[in-house]
Amino acid sequence: MEKLIIATRASNLALWQAYHIKDRIEKSFPNIEVELNKIVSKGDKILDKPLALVGGKGHFTKELEDEMLAGNAHLAVHSLKDVPTYIPEGLELVAITQRQDQSDVFLSHKYKSLKALPKGAVVGTTSLRRRMQLLKKRPDLIVKDLRGNVNTRLRKLAEGQYDAIILAWIGLHRLDLLKDIPYTKKLKLKNMIPPMGQAALGIEIVASNDKVREIAMSLNDEPTFICTKIERDFISKIGAGCSAPVACNATIDGDVINLEAMIGYPDGTNIMWKTSTALISHCDNLGTTLANDFILDGAMEVLEKAESIAFKDEMPQRL
After folding, report:
1. Is 267 a known active-site residue?
2. Which has more pLDDT, 242 or 167?
3. CATH number at residue 12
4. Which one of the listed residues 66, 82, 145, 253 is annotated catalytic?
5. Cα dihedral 91, 93, 97, 101 sign
6. Pairing status of strand 246-253 against strand 91-96
7. Vertex 74, ends 68 and 75: CA angle to 5°?
8. Do 249 and 226 share a structural domain?
9. What is the pLDDT of residue 318?
10. Range of the domain at 261
11. Within this chain, do residues 142 and 122 fall inside the same structural domain, yes or no?
């Protein structure tokens, strides 16, 4: 194999991730030329309404998968949190890179922290997961939709459209965008549980290509693979898409793996929170088992209702 083509979204963060993987591959396989196939995904095109209102899954991955299935790319680099649990026939999610800092971060030009926000302050996020957890702790806040790429979101904050916004820390760190914001504060994971796969990259390949599989596996981090598989099993079992108000995080502590999950309404009510643990040697069904516990307690009804009320205040203007 002389050339490897990587499919990637064309956003700044996606390109940073793709070039990072390109560099790693070229160091490990110096005889292989690596080229990027840059694609604008559906999720990058729809900027006038929350993706939770669009419906469907794979808003940031489908076009990349189509390119691989058409023979125009061998491998795709995804933000793992954007990858649906269903992978099309002929493709396979074979490797997960080492997870970095999963924290969300509070950003503001006016206030030092989430605690410092006054009653009625406007906070921007499009994530129903963040919206749920914010309003659970601070029901006095006004949470408004925030779309656009990272630079657009930061511009809207600087313009005063929001008193604060919440984003993933890792993306801002990778693009070196934190230095220009007066007030930044990481949110502790216990206070803002992350989504499935946050801060890890998923490497998806054409399943029939053994050489590409070998290359992809050189990028895999086994502890991260174990944790994110458990998270993806949980999400798959309860049928939640990447836009649903669901938080899910697996961590390893010695020979034990811990799984924490939360679902609820986007307005911060009807919260269900559970944890479970297992030995790493016996953790294959941990995600599915915890999901079944949620389902027995009515999780499916909560998620169905959550979907029906998501962004209800914004739907008349946006649809």
Report:
1. no
2. 167
3. 3.40.190.10
4. 82
5. positive
6. unpaired
7. 90
8. yes
9. 31
10. 222-319
11. yes
